[in-house]
Amino acid sequence: MFRRVAIIGGGAAGATLLSELLERPVSQPLHLDWYTGGGTPGRGIAYGTRSERHLLNVRAASMGMFASRPNGFLEHMQKRDPRISGTDFLPRCRYGEYLEAETASALARARSNGHDVRVVPYEVDAMVPENDGVTLFQGETTTRVEAAVLALGTLPPRPLSQVDEATLAGGRYVTRPWSLLAEAKPDTQAYHVAVIGLGLTAVDVIVELAALWPNARFTGISRHGLLPEVHQANAALPFEDSEELIEAMRDAPDIRTWMHLLREAIGHTDDWRRVIDCLRPRTQELWQLLPLADRSRFLRHARWAWERSRHRLPQQVAQAIAALEQENRLQRVSAHLHGVTLGERGPQLRILPKGQGKERTLDADLVVQCVGLDNDIRRTQHPLLQQMVTNGHIKPDPFGLGMQATPDGRVLHDGSAWPRLFAIGSMLRGSLWESTAMPEIRQQARQLADHLLSD
Ligand SMILES: Cc1cc2nc3c(=O)[nH]c(=O)nc-3n(C[C@H](O)[C@H](O)[C@H](O)COP(=O)(O)OP(=O)(O)OC[C@H]3O[C@@H](n4cnc5c(N)ncnc54)[C@H](O)[C@@H]3O)c2cc1C
């Protein structure tokens, strides 16, 4: 059992692990250091939004913080309003409040049980893992712990290579959409906003800015010009042949066969979502069976289609987007982005629309980059991860999906696992693929807490 543990990361994953550790009966008091990196502990990026327009993309019944109580969030919400149903997609800010409330009660319990928990609202600057402990550096302070867990979420976005320095310096090209939305104020100017990418983050940006800026119009640019797929109003029935499908996929772990099997299964259902959803509890296991060459093939050819079908929009959000399109406030363009430079009137985008041989330019008042979550620690400027990669303490996943680790979250270096350094959440995508959402994170938190406190 490790009595002195550091958790690095103040989002939902760090909060869930902390709460799991403090839930368990232990023979001796724990000493936990929780480095949150600033912000409201527990909320992180996803649940830090204060907008009611930003909805969860997972139904309320599946968003409980604890693996032992998957209904926890629903019960919390139904105490306020019994009409709320488990199939509802609720605002993410409500979920942030729930995380905060659960974390506060875990911390209060810890005090009454004699545990010593330090919540440190700063980033860890550097770490040195060794076989008998981990040393952390934060500002002028050095701390030695028995074990440490990296719960760092996804990486700060990097600007696309097509954007020139002058545009970046001009302040009208935004790489951190969440900071923009947190500070955006109502405005009646007729802005033209170009959004690069058309995934869930782009949708959040468009829906929010369209409400705050009623005269703004938007151009959404992506390779295919398509939005994420949409959830059905009610949860789909389980796919009746899921066991046979998974068994067949297990027997032939190569991406071409899997695509064939999936197409066949989808052909036998009334709703393709049932097939995609039946894979979710088994995705991690299937991913581990897939040879590296096939992972690479999947990432090159099928990743985009998978993400679009797996991470879907709630119907209310899809309707808000459709209304903007009908009012001609949103135009979607399928195009390659060739460059963004600073013109006389602001950022200018050069794009090559699909099927056309000729480049087109687009003037915008503001450009917001929403190109998906980044886990590539080979290229990151995140100071802690940079330091750990440079010093060989961690090894990047070969496909840019976080760090090399065992499926149960032990961080690898030179092919072997550190006995006292662990990771949870998005940084484990390379070994698990499905590792960014709460249903997976709470499972990892439970297993890790069991491991850390086992005798
Ligand atoms: C916009 C958005 C919507 C989403 N919606 C859903 C949803 O509806 N349902 C769902 O299940 N999942 C959703 N997700 C997935 C989401 O990633 C997880 O649910 C969860 O929020 C991940 O939490 P995390 O703690 O791993 O990461 P984060 O929330 O990113 O937290 C990482 C934390 O690490 C801290 N940190 C970074 N570096 C350091 C350092 N050096 N020292 C100390 N602290 C550091 C950061 O400050 C931050 O607090 C969504 C994600 C996004 C981005």
TrEMBL record:
Pfam families: NAD_binding_9. Signal peptide: none annotated. Gene3D superfamilies: FAD/NAD(P)-binding domain. Residues 6-154 form the FAD-dependent urate hydroxylase HpyO/Asp monooxygenase CreE-like FAD/NAD(P)-binding domain. InterPro entries: FAD/NAD-bd_sf, HpyO/CreE_NAD-binding, L-asp_N-monooxygenase_NS-form. This is Pyridine nucleotide-disulfide oxidoreductase. It comes from Dyella flagellata. The lineage of its organism: Bacteria, Pseudomonadati, Pseudomonadota, Gammaproteobacteria, Lysobacterales.
